[in-house]
Amino acid sequence: MHSSRRQFLTRVSLAAGGMALLAACGDGDAEATPSAAPSGVDAKWPDLTSRQVVVAGFGGETYEVRQKLEFDPFTKLSGARVTQASWDYGKFTEMVAKPNPEWDMIDFDGYSIAALIEGKTPPGKLADWVRRCDLVDKQYQDYAAGSYAYSVVLGWSTKLGATPTGWADFFDTKKFPGKRAFPKSIYAGTAELALLADGVAKDKLYPLDLDRAIAKMDTIKKDIIFYDSYAQGQQYMAQGSASMIATANSRMIQLKDSGKPIDWTYQDAILYPWGGFALTQQAPNADAANALIDYLSTPEAQAAVAKELYLGPTVSAALDLLTPEELAKQPSAPDNVAKQLSVDVPSLAKQDGEYVEKFFAWVGK
I need a labelling partner for 41 at 20 to 30 A (CA). Which of 4, 12, 70, 325 fits? Predict the structure, then answer.
């Protein structure tokens, strides 16, 4: 099961553009002198001796923006350059507890971090001086910070005429004709939305009945066009190849804001309430890695990402830095959280291997 999970999640990283190795902030000769917490930053860093941090991330548009808004400013403030490595779940789990790991940290969903913590090889614990993210579940706050929330939402073409009101309409091809754009390599939220469409109450959803979810997805498989990346899903909707889509909230906001005849809703969306950067236990640049996570967890950094990418803060103080219009677009804004299904992180951590196996098998059959 673990081998299949690794293969599948490697496909996810490829789809997200994560296999591109990106250099950051010049060469070693051009680096600034490491220092303690810089003036103007609400941080209590020790003197940093490390001159780089190696981060395994997903690349693509999200990481281009993070480079500009977060990594480059951190380098100027700390003297430690941020080098992005290709995201790979299996590679991280193999190095997480070993001496002299290649990476310092990886960008993970909350349930992946929870699974590691509850398993035999937990990630490294954050330094005591790293700020904790208050919207991360309390039992995981010592291991996860610096990332964001996102949602899998229902989107549709306004040319349909009628307006869908929930996931049941996604499966109703008579009332709402047309192809459904559906993820092939990004399985997040697929079982949950299928079960909601099949009438399962939100408070009865976990543990997931994955066989029932697959059976529901089978009912429209002939009407599905699969996308390999969120960008491809956007293209299907923009060119009219599909009339409805299940995709990330950020992608639907971008499409609607660009003037395309598209609408979407947070109603009954599948909310992944937090992710985090997980450390290797013996991170080679532990001081700078902890400082970076602390920096990424500041309300200012979190708000900047939320404004640019519509990825919700995991620090509540960041929400106060957004305008009402900006707040309305965030998946972790209180009014939007109330509309959604927030995934049960501990339960999903226990089922994730089975989830991957069954979704992957369904896509391939």
Answer: 325
